[in-house]
Amino acid sequence: MNMKKIACLVICTLMIVTVFPVVGFPIQKEEIKNLNNAQPHYKAPTPGYAPIPPSDTLIDVPTVREHPEKTAATMDDTVISMIEQVDVSIYLRYLDNLTALGPRPTGSSACVASAAYIYNQFESMGLAVRYHNWNSAGYSSANIEATINGTDESSDEIYIICAHYDTVSAGPGADDDTSGTVAVIMAALIMSQHQFKFNHTIKFVAFSGEEQGLLGSGVYAADAAAEGWDIAGVLNADMISYAITTNDGNNLIVFEDTDSEWLYTYTLDINTEYADYTHLTLHHGSYTWGSDHNSFWDEGYDALFYFEYTETPYYHTSGDTIAHINKTYAVKNIRLILATLAELSEVRFLSNPPAAPVLTGPTSGVINQAYTLSVVTTEPDGEDVYYFIEWGDSQADEWVGPYNSGVTAEITHQWDKKGTYTIMAKAKDIYGMESGWGTINVVMPTEYTFSFNVFLQHLFERFPHMFPILRHLIGY
User: Fold this and answer.
1) Residue 456 lies in a domain
2) What are the backbone dihedrals phi and psi of residue 256, each rounded to the nearest 5 degrees, phi first?
C-alpha cells in the first residue's frame, strides 16, 4: 500500500512539472517594464576580474538628489547636424587605432599607451583635458577627462558620457569596451566644433580599472561627490557593437536604477524623435551593477548603461576583435547616445548669420540679352558664404558658391519677357545660418530700341578699360 502511494505521488509530481506548463500553466520569467510592453529581465556581464558583490549589497535605493527639469525632447536641426556626422569610417579609424595596441589590462604598458592616445585625441580637439590619477585595490592608473564648459552661468549641471578603455588580458576588447570608448571620442570630436555651444557642462571620460571592479570610475565618482559636483546625468556606453541578426541590430538595452527612471524616459523620447537616424527599439533593462555607471549610482548620481541587445559570445576572449563587431549597429547606438547628450546639455548654434547681400547691376535692359549681377555680403565669423538668387521670373540660382566673406560674386542672367523684375538674394554660411534678403529692380523693354545713351552704356559696360577719357568727358 505504501509503495502504491509513493508511486502515485511520483506520477502526480511529474505531471505537474511536465504537463501543466504545456496546457496553460507556464512558469513565468521575471518581467520588467518597457513603458509599452513587458520584457524579460536582461542581465549584463560582470567585469572580468571583479568579485560579484553579495546579493544584499545590490540594493536599489532612491537618492535625495533633485532631478533637473527637462522639457520633452523635440527634433532639433542642430542635433541632426551633429548625429549625421557619426560616420562608419571615423568609427573604424578610432577602433582600429585602439585595438591595434592589443590587450590593455589595467597597469600594462598597452593600457598606458591607450590612455596617451585618448588624451592626445582630446587635446587635438582643443578641449581642456587632464589625467585623473587613481590608486585603488593595489592598482595605479589614470582616467582621462575632457571638458566643454557650459555657457549658462546660472547652471552648475554637468553631463557625462563615459566608457572604460581597459580590457581583460585575453584579447583586444573591440566590443568590451573599445566600442564604448570610441563613442566617447566621437562625441567629443563632434561636440567640440566651434559652432556648437552648450548651456551645461559636458565631460568626456574614459576609465581604467573597470575590469578589476569599477576601480577608476569608483574613485572618480567619489571625488566628484566630495567636491560637490552637480552631475545631473551620466551616459555609460559599454559593449555596444555586437549584432549578427537584423533583430540584434534593431534593439538596444538601457539599464537604470529607480532614481534614473527620468533619464531612461528621456533617452526613450530622444529615440522616438530621431527614429529616422537611430532605427532602434529600446528595452528597459532595470538594475545591474556590472559597469561604470554603478559607481555614480553609489554616489547618488543618475546614470544610464547602454548595452547591446545580444551579448557577444566573444566576451572576455581573444575573439573580441574588429572581425566580430557590427559597425553599422555601433553607429546607430552612438547616434542615440550623442543625441541624448546634446539635448540634455542644451546645444545651440553659435554661428552668426551673414548680413543681407548688397546687389548691384543694370536697372534696365532688353530682353534675351544676358546681364551680370554683382552680389556681396560679409559674414561676422569670417566663414565662407553661398548665395540663393531669385530673378523675379520664376527662375532661381540655388546656393551658388562658396565665396569668401566680403568678396563680390558675379552671376549672369537674361529675361525673355517684358516687365519689371525684382531680383532677390540671400546668403548662408557654411553652418546653414541664413541672412535676410537683398533686392534690386530691373526693367526690361519689349524689344531693342536704339538710343545713343544706351549704346554708350552697353559699350562702356562691355569694354570698361578702353574709353576712360571719353567716359570722363561725357560723365559716364
Assistant:
1) no
2) -155, 160
41 Cβ partners below 8 Å, 6+ apart?
29, 30, 31, 32, 286
Whether residue 427 sits in one domain with residue 327: no
405 assigned to some structural domain? yes
Clarify whether residues 309 and 372 are in a common domain: no
- For position 362, which CATH number holds? 2.60.40.10
- The whole domain housing 405 covers 358-445
User: Which among 390, 447, 449, 445 has a CA at the least distance from the CA of 419?
Assistant: 445
Which range has the top average pLDDT, 90-99, 429-438, 464-473? 90-99
Residue (of 289, 146, 157) closest to 234 by Cα position: 157
Q: What is the pLDDT of residues 334-382, one digit of tens each?
A: 999 999 999 999 998 777 789 999 999 998 888 988 999 999 999 988 8
Residues 147 and 178 in one domain: yes
β strands within 354-448, DSSP E? 358-360, 371-376, 385-390, 396-403, 409-413, 419-429, 438-444
Model-level pTM greater than 0.85? no
Q: Which of 318, 349, 380 is the last residue in one of the domains?
A: 349
Q: Quick one: which H or E segment has residue 101? A: none
- For the stretch 65-103, pLDDT in tens is 777 877 766 778 889 999 999 999 999 999 999 999 999
Q: Reduce the secondary structure of 125-189 to three states and give it as a string.
A: CCCEEEEEEEEECCEEEEEEEEEECCCCCCCCEEEEEEEECCCCCCCCCHHHHHHHHHHHHHHHH
Please calculate the CA angle 264-251-58 and round it to the nearest 5 degrees: 50
